[in-house]
């Protein structure tokens, strides 16, 4: 699949389905170390995005899709997830603004901008047991894949695999940011829900690019 507006819409459509499918899983993860609303919030936000995707003009590009996602999530998702994901997609939209089709360099720029937006908004860094721990490995893997000559779908596949590993790696850590940080060592053994939803979303990007 060409990584154009059709792909961007497919990614978000698939991402919405994945958030709905994993809603209870994300609720349970967040209930263990947070306030239990992450799955509900993510599902509600992406369902709201779905209702607006068809309103995009025919000449829309991927950046327009990501800007729509950003503004919708910010306005409909409560808790920390709305501002964090909203900022991520807004920065991603700016990074690829005006591009009709995304090449490897644009994908790396998109992922990097999204990660940097999360860092800016959440004031977190790698090792804090947050969604940054999925996004930073994803950015690094995408950049390495691009440098190795991988095409767009392979770059996204590398990013998704790294995000999944990063989310899993949060399980034995003590949280240093967010509500989970108040639990101290009681957060050990629990995966960060934001890292997990990030990994799910990046896998959706890779799967749609691969035509799965």
UniProtKB/TrEMBL annotation:
Ranges for domain DhaL: 6-207
GO cellular component: cytosol
GO BP annotation list: glycerol catabolic process
Gene Ontology MF terms in the entry: glycerone kinase activity
Keyword Transferase in annotation: yes
Keyword Transferase set for record: yes
Record key words, sorted: Kinase, Transferase
Xref: PROSITE patterns: DHAL
InterPro entries for this protein: DhaK_L_YcgS, DhaL_dom, DhaL_dom_sf, Dihydroxyacetone_Kinase
PANTHER family for the chain: TRIOKINASE/FMN CYCLASE, TRIOKINASE_FMN CYCLASE
Official protein name in the record: Dihydroxyacetone kinase subunit L
Taxonomic source organism: Cryobacterium cheniae
């Amino acid at each position: 699949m060409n990584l154009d507006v059709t792909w961007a819409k497919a990614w978000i459509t698939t991402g919405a389905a994945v958030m709905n499918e994993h809603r209870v899983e994300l609720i349970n993860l967040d209930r263990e170390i947070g306030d239990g609303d992450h799955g509900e919030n993510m599902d509600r936000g992406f369902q709201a995005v779905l209702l607006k995707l068809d309103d995009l003009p025919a000449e829309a590009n991927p950046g327009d899709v990501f800007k729509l996602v950003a503004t919708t999530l910010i306005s409909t998702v409560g808790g920390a997830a709305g501002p964090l994901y909203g900022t991520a997609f807004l920065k991603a939209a700016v990074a690829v603004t005006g591009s009709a089709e995304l090449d490897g360099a644009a994908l790396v720029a998109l992922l990097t901008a999204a990660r940097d937006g999360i860092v800016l908004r959440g004031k977190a860094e790698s090792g804090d047991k947050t969604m940054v721990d999925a996004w930073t490995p994803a950015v690094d893997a995408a950049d390495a894949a691009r440098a190795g000559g991988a095409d767009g779908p392979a770059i996204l596949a590398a990013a998704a695999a790294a995000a999944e590993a990063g989310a899993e790696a949060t399980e034995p850590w003590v949280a240093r940011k967010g509500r989970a940080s108040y639990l101290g060592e009681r957060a050990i053994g629990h995966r960060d829900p934001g890292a997990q939803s990030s990994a799910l979303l990046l896998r959706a990007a890779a799967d749609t690019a691969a035509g799965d």
